[in-house]
Write a structure and sequence with these properties.
- With about 240 residues, the chain is mainly α.
- The protein folds into 2 domains: about 160 residues, Ribonuclease III domain (Ribonuclease iii, N-terminal Endonuclease Domain, Chain A, Orthogonal Bundle), CATH 1.10.1520; about 60 residues, Double Stranded RNA Binding Domain (2-Layer Sandwich).
- About 55% of the residues lie in helices and about 10% in strands.
- A 3-stranded antiparallel sheet has the order 1-2-3.
- Strand 2 and strand 3 form a beta hairpin.
- The longest helix has 22 residues.
Length: about 240
């Protein structure tokens, strides 16, 4: 079946508009947005170079924010804090909040193997979007997009958690409150052996918390699930 190029372009424009609304930024060059959403499995003109650029934009924006807001921290402490904010787990969570997977252009193989859920693809596409905004406009606009997405994380920065991953933070919280530790179980595995995707559930029965995470390994999926569970923790004095 032949695809009408005009119809396809109209659909891309409509979907792109929905994503732009979530980002809070409208592209003057829609082709940059489409490039950012294109995986290398789909076309020769894909998003890897934009991802390279966006990775630097993200690192610079977060570094600038931390430098301005935490004058008491040393260079090493700032570096560890930045690393915790720009790691793949955080990017994937933000991408999922944007429903970014549904906007991606993936090759047939990636579609069949659930590439739209794969953490590395989601994280790379989000960084590509940051790079696309920079090229479309300015660093200031790219900074605004990044900061707006990161508001929940930047507002809850805790220097006491420097360098600690989600599972460690969750465990320390529960131990401090004398609450039984969570259990982790794989609820779904998909994809070929070389490109598997794991879905893990983190359960804390005593708090009635159940959260799931997805990753390219069981370890990554557990970290995702732990982060989701950590965000559901009640305030206990």
């Amino acid at each position: 079946m032949r695809v009408n190029k005009g119809s396809q372009s109209a659909q891309e424009s409509l979907r792109g508009g929905a994503l732009c609304k979530k980002l809070g930024y409208v592209f003057k060059q829609p082709q940059l947005l489409q490039r950012a959403l294109t995986h290398r499995s789909y076309a020769p003109e894909h998003n890897e170079r934009l991802e390279f650029l966006g990775d630097s934009v993200l690192g610079c924006v977060i570094a600038k924010h931390l430098y301005n807001n935490f004058p008491q921290l040393s260079e090493g402490e700032l570096s560890r804090l930045r690393s915790s904010l720009v790691r793949e787990e955080t990017l994937v969570t933000l991408a999922q909040q944007l429903d970014l997977g549904s906007y991606l252009k993936l090759g047939e193989g990636e579609l069949k193997s659930g590439g739209f859920r794969r953490p590395s693809i989601l994280a790379d596409a989000l960084e590509a979007l940051f790079g696309a905004v920079l090229l479309d406009s300015s660093f200031a606009d790219a900074e605004t997009v990044v900061v707006n997405l990161y508001v929940p994380y930047l507002e809850e920065v805790d220097v006491q958690t420097l360098g600690k991953d989600a599972k460690t933070l969750l465990q320390e919280y529960l131990q401090g409150k004398r609450i039984p530790l969570p259990t982790y179980s794989v609820v779904e595995m998909s994809g070929e052996a070389h490109a598997q995707s794991f879905q893990v559930e983190c359960v804390i029965p005593s708090l009635k918390i159940s959260a799931r995470g997805t990753g390219t390994s069981r370890r990554n999926a557990e970290q995702q699930a732990a982060q989701a569970a950590y965000q559901q923790l009640p305030i206990i004095s």
